Amino acid sequence: MSFALPPLQWLRAYEASARLSSFSAAAAELNLTPAAISHQVRALEQRLGFQLFERLARGLQLTDIGRAYLPSVRKAFDELAVTTVGLFGRDHDTHITVRTPVLFATNWLAPLLPKFYAAFPHIKLRILTAIWADTSTNVDVDIRFGDGQWSEFEVHPLLREPSILVVREDTKLPEGSDRDKVLALLDHGVVHIMGCEDRWTKLLRKHDISDRKVRVSTMTDNSLFAIRLTLAGLGPCVVQRSYAEPFLKEGLTAPLTEGIEIDESHYILTARSAERTTPEAIIFREWLVAECRAGRDEASERPA
C-alpha cells in the first residue's frame, strides 16, 4: 500500500511549533511569518484528518495524537540529515565542539578517534575537557557523568560500570576476606572524590560494616587525581573500573574480589532542537554510542 506523505515544509512547521509551543517562535526559527506556519500546520492537520494542536490563548498544546506523532517526525529529520551528510559529506570540513570529562576523554575517547576520523574525515572535533559541566559554554555534544536526568537535552547512555577499590601494590593487607581487607584499610585515611559521597557508604554496606566510619585524608574533585594520590601513598580510593585499569600494572592493585554498583554513569547529550543540533553532532553521538556498546560487550566477555 502507498501513502502520499505530507510536504516536508508542513512537517517542519509542525515539529518546530510542537517543540516551541508557539507559531510565532516557530516562524522566527524557520524564517517565516506566523501566518505561514499556522497555515502549514492547518494544512497538515487536514491532510492527516486529525487535530495536532489545541490553540490556546497563550500558545499551543499538543493533542494526544500530536504528541504521539512527534517522536517519529523528529527521528525522520535526524536520520535524513545524518544519512545525507554521512554519505555525501559537505563541500567543506565541519567542526563540532565536544565537552567530556578528562578521564573519559583519556581512556575511552582518545583511542577511538582515529576510527572516527577514518569513517568521517570531513568532521573535525574541538574537544574540551572538564570536571564539572559548565553550562555557560555552548557545545554541540556534551558527555556527562551523572544520573541521566537532564530533561532539556536529548540524552543517551554511554558507559555504565562498577567502581572498584584500588590501593598501592605495597599496601599490607590481611589474607582474610574482603571484609577484613576493608576494615584494615579503614584504620588509615582514604582518598575521597567530591560528588561521589555514596561510594564508600555502599562499599561498607556491601561488606556489612556499620560500626566504622571512613576517615578522609585527602579530597579531590576528579578521579585521575584521586588515583595519583593513591599512588603517592595517601590511601585507597574508589573509582570506576575502566579508570583504574590502566594503572593496575603501574603501581596499583584491586584487592577485593568484587566492585560496587553505582547509580551514576556516563551519558551523551545533544540539543533537543532540530535546528540547534547539526547532522555532524548526531553522527558523532550515534557513532560513540555504538562504540561504547561494543566496548562494554568486549569487556564483559573478558575473564574477571
Q: Would you write up a description of this structure?
A:
The mean pLDDT is 86. With 304 residues, this protein is of the alpha/beta class. Helix 1 crosses helix 4, helix 4 crosses helix 10 (279-301) and helix 5 (102-119) packs across helix 10 (279-301). The chain has ten helices and twelve strands. The strands form four sheets. Strands 4-3-5-12-6 form a five-stranded mixed sheet, covered by helices on one side. The chain has a three-stranded antiparallel sheet with strand order 10-7-11. The longest helix has 25 residues, at 64-88. The N and C termini lie far apart (53 Å).
Q: Outline, from the CA principal axes?
A: elongated
Termini separation: 53 Å
Helix segment tally = 10
Report the radius of gyration as a whole number of Å: 25 Å
What percent of the residues sit in helical stretches (DSSP H or I)? 40-55%
* Order of strands in the sheet with most strands: 4-3-5-12-6
Could you name the ranges where pLDDT drops below 50 across 5 or more consecutive residues?
none
How do the helices and strands follow one another from N- to C-terminus? HHHEEHEHEEEEHEHEHEHEEH
Total count of strands: 12
Strand content: 15-25%
The average pLDDT is 86
Query: Main sheet?
Result: 5 strands, mixed
